[in-house]
């Protein structure tokens, strides 16, 4: 049985607990340039997933759920709207780069995703900065099992420091 399409990746640890106790997270101790995410397979994305996402996002373009309409436009079948796999890749980035928080992500959609496709998610840390605002830059991808790239993304994740005014004390 395949993992659920919207399943969770277990974060490394709770950033809030760790920040409160130690005063901060050092991204250099967690990530290094060249670190790669463990590849994750998702899918297959089915028509039911597409229709549910259309309802949630308000994207009711019939090319994504009406096979006759898609074929009338010359496509062999309906295809997944770009923001569904974008959301999945964003969730992957969030979970992989935890305890950091994504503050920027830019997608490049390179190929259509068809119903019943299995997809592989991955990523690589490109830069770790420890200046006044520590951050990590990462390159992400979603590809088919044959290696063809479907989506790439670049993201930046920053460290959050806990401000005691925002988090009540444990007293």
Q: What can be said about the biggest beta sheet? A: 5 strands, antiparallel
Provide the low-confidence segments as ranges: 1-23
Distance between the amino and carboxyl termini: 46 Å
Computed Rg = 19 Å
Strand content: 15-25%
Mean pLDDT, to the nearest integer, reads 82
Order of helices and strands: HHEHHHEEEE
Helix percent reads 25-40%
Category by helix and strand content: alpha+beta
Q: Assembly type of the shown chains?
A: single chain
Describe this structure in words.
- This protein has 171 residues and is of the alpha+beta class.
- It contains five helices and five strands, in the order ααβαααββββ.
- The chain has helices at residues 15-22, 27-30, 47-57, 67-72, 83-96; strands spanning 40-42, 101-109, 119-129, 135-143, 149-158.
- A five-stranded antiparallel sheet has the order 1-3-4-5-2, covered by helices on one side.
- The model is unreliable at 1-23 (pLDDT under 50).
């Amino acid at each position: 049985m395949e993992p659920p399409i919207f399943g969770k990746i277990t974060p490394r640890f709770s950033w809030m607990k760790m920040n409160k106790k130690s005063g901060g997270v050092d991204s250099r101790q967690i990530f290094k340039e060249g670190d790669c995410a463990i590849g994750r397979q998702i899918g297959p994305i089915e028509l039911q997933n597409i229709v549910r996402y259309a309802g949630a996002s308000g994207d009711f373009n019939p090319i994504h759920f009406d096979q006759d309409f898609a074929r009338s436009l010359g496509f062999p079948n309906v295809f997944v709207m770009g923001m569904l796999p974008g959301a999945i890749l964003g969730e992957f980035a969030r979970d992989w780069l935890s305890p950091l928080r994504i503050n920027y992500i830019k997608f490049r959609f390179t190929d259509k995703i068809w119903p019943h496709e299995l997809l592989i998610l991955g990523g690589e840390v490109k830069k770790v900065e420890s200046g006044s605002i520590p951050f990590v830059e990462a390159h992400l991808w979603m590809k088919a099992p044959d290696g063809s790239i479907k989506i790439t993304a670049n993201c930046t994740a920053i460290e959050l420091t806990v401000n005691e005014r925002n988090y009540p004390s444990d007293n």
